[in-house]
TrEMBL record:
Pfam families attached to this UniProt entry: 7tm_1
Listed InterPro entries: GPCR_Rhodpsn, GPCR_Rhodpsn_7TM
GO CC terms: membrane
Location(s), subcellular: Membrane
GO BP: neuropeptide signaling pathway
Domain of life, source organism: Eukaryota
Source organism of this protein record: Saccoglossus kowalevskii
Name of this chain's protein: Neuropeptide receptor-like protein 4
Gene symbol of the encoding locus: LOC100313674
UniProt cross-references to CDD domains, sorted A to Z: 7tm_classA_rhodopsin-like
Top-level taxonomy: Eukaryota, Metazoa, Hemichordata, Enteropneusta, Harrimaniidae
C-alpha cells in the first residue's frame, strides 16, 4: 500500500509531487510510518495535540476578552489583534488536529472535490490573513510612534481593514479552485495496479502550482518580512533617539525596543524554514522529504508563530491580562485597580518634568505637540484627548483617564501635549501603564 499518511502532509505543505513513484515508500502499519523518528509515535501525537491546545486556548481567550470587554473592543489596534487571533485560531482548530488524525488513521481522505478545495483554501487563507494582520498592526504602530501628529487608524477603519484582510486572502488563494481536485493515483504493488484517490493537483497543472508557490513565498513571506523589518527598524530608531525624562522612562523604552526586535525575529524564524523548504522543493523535487521527523520539526517551527502571537500582542498587555483573570476565574478574582492618587501623582511629576525640559530649551508652544519619549502611544475612547482633562488631580479626571486609556502600541511612554489655544500653556503628560505591546 502506498504511503497514504503522507497525503495530508503533502497537501498542507503544498508538496504536490507527481505520483509516479508514490509506491516506493510503504507504511506497514501505523508504526511503520515513524521509522525515522527517534521518539515513540505517541510523542508525535502529543506534540500536535498540545500545539493545538496552546493555539486554540490562547487565541480563543484573546477573542473572548475583546468581545466581552467594551474598553478593549473600542480600540482600533485591538480590532486588528482580534483579526490576527481568528486567523491563528483556525490554524489551531484545523491544521494541528488534522495532522494527528493523519498519523493515527494513516491518512485523511477528502473524497469530495468541494471538501478538498475548501479545506486547502481555508488553511491557506488563515496563513495569509495572519501575515496581513501582522502588517496592519505594524503600520498602526508605525503611524503612532514615527508619525504621532498624523491621524490614527479609527475603529471603523480597523474593521474595514480586518474585512479586507480576509477578502484579499481569499482572492490571493483562489487558484486552489482551479488547481486542487480529487485525483486518482495509480502504482504497481505486488505486480498489480493499485489506485488511490487523494486531494491533490493533477500532474498537468503541477507546473502552474510551482509558479504559484514562488509568488506565494515572495508575496506572503519575503515582502512582508522586508516591510516589517523596515517599519520596526524606524520605530526602534525613533524610540532610541527620543529623550527620556527619567530612569523609569528609559527602562520602559529599552523594554519596548526589545519587544519590537522580538516581533521581527519571531516572524523570520517561525516562517523561514517552511518557506525555504518550499522554495527548494519548487526548483528541485529532490529536496522533498518524507521524513516525519524533519516535517514535524519544520511544522512545529511554523505553527509556533500562532501561539507566540497572542503572547506578544495580548498577554503582555495589562488590560488583556486583567480581563483574562476575570474570564479564567469566572469573575471571582478582580485585578486591583490603580487609585486616582497614583494617577494624579504620575500626571503631576511628568508634567513638571516636561515643562522644565521644554522651557529650558525655549521650545515654541506649537512645537511641544510631540512625544518627548516614544515608547508608548495613548489611545482614548471615542477620539477623546487627554488634554481635555487638564486637572487630573481631581478624582473625576483621574477616573476618566483610568477608564478610557487603551494601550495601542508599545508600552510605557510619556506624551506631552498642549492645547491649540494661544493662552493655554498647560502641558498634560500621559500615563504610562504597565503594558508592553498592545
Amino acid at each position: 500500500m502506498a504511503n497514504d499518511s503522507l497525503v495530508l502532509n503533502e497537501t498542507l505543505f503544498d508538496l504536490d509531487e507527481e505520483s509516479e513513484n508514490a509506491g516506493e515508500d510503504e507504511c506497514e502499519g501505523i508504526d511503520g510510518c515513524f521509522e525515522d523518528i527517534p521518539v515513540p509515535p505517541q510523542a508525535y501525537y502529543a506534540f500536535f495535540g498540545f500545539s493545538s491546545f496552546l493555539i486554540t486556548f490562547g487565541n480563543l481567550l484573546v477573542v473572548i476578552a475583546i468581545l466581552r470587554n467594551k474598553k478593549l473592543r473600542s480600540s482600533a489596534t485591538n480590532t486588528l489583534i482580534v483579526c490576527l487571533a481568528f486567523s491563528d485560531l483556525f490554524i489551531g482548530i484545523l491544521y494541528c488536529p488534522f495532522q494527528v488524525v493523519n498519523m493515527v488513521l494513516g491518512g485523511v481522505q477528502l473524497r469530495e472535490s468541494y471538501l478538498c478545495r475548501g479545506y486547502v483554501i481555508f488553511i491557506r487563507m488563515s496563513f495569509t490573513a495572519t501575515t496581513m494582520s501582522l502588517l496592519a498592526i505594524a503600520v498602526d504602530r508605525y503611524r503612532a510612534i514615527v508619525q504621532p501628529m498624523q491621524p490614527r487608524i479609527s475603529l471603523t477603519q480597523a474593521r474595514y481593514i480586518s474585512i479586507a484582510v480576509w477578502i484579499v486572502s481569499f482572492i490571493f488563494n483562489s487558484n486552489v479552485f482551479v488547481s486542487y481536485r480529487i485525483v486518482t493515483e495509480t502504482w504497481q504493488e505486488n505486480g498489480q495496479n493499485v489506485s488511490h484517490e487523494v486531494c491533490d493537483v493533477p500532474y498537468y497543472l503541477v507546473h502552474i502550482e510551482y509558479r504559484m508557490k514562488i509568488v506565494y513565498i515572495v508575496a506572503i513571506y519575503l515582502v512582508p518580512l522586508v516591510v516589517l523589518s523596515t517599519l520596526y527598524a524606524r520605530m526602534i530608531i525613533t524610540l532610541y533617539s527620543g529623550k527620556s525624562i527619567n530612569d523609569e522612562s528609559r527602562r520602559r523604552k529599552r523594554k519596548a525596543i526589545k519587544m519590537l526586535i522580538v516581533v521581527v525575529i519571531m516572524y523570520a524564524l517561525c516562517w523561514g524554514p517552511y518557506r525555504v523548504h518550499q522554495v527548494l522543493y519548487a526548483y528541485d523535487e529532490s529536496w522533498f522529504t518524507d521524513s516525519y521527523f524533519i516535517l514535524t520539526v519544520i511544522s512545529f517551527i511554523f505553527i509556533s508563530n500562532s501561539f507566540v502571537n497572542p503572547i506578544i500582542y495580548a498577554f503582555c498587555n495589562r488590560n488583556f491580562r486583567d480581563e483574562f483573570i476575570l474570564i479564567l476565574s469566572c469573575g471571582a478574582i478582580r485585578p486591583p485597580a490603580k487609585s486616582a492618587r497614583q494617577y494624579s501623582s504620575k500626571f503631576t511629576k511628568s508634567t513638571e518634568a516636561a515643562e522644565s525640559s521644554i522651557a529650558s530649551k525655549g521650545v515654541e508652544l506649537q512645537e511641544t505637540k510631540q512625544y518627548t519619549d516614544m515608547a508608548k502611544i495613548l489611545e482614548v475612547e471615542e477620539g477623546g484627548n487627554v488634554s481635555e482633562y487638564e486637572n487630573p488631580v481631581s478624582k473625576e479626571g483621574a477616573e476618566h483617564v483610568e477608564n478610557n486609556v487603551q494601550c495601542a502600541t508599545i508600552s510605557d511612554v510619556e506624551l506631552v501635549h498642549t492645547s491649540d489655544d494661544t493662552d493655554a500653556q498647560h502641558l498634560t503628560s500621559a500615563i504610562g501603564t504597565q503594558t508592553t505591546l498592545g
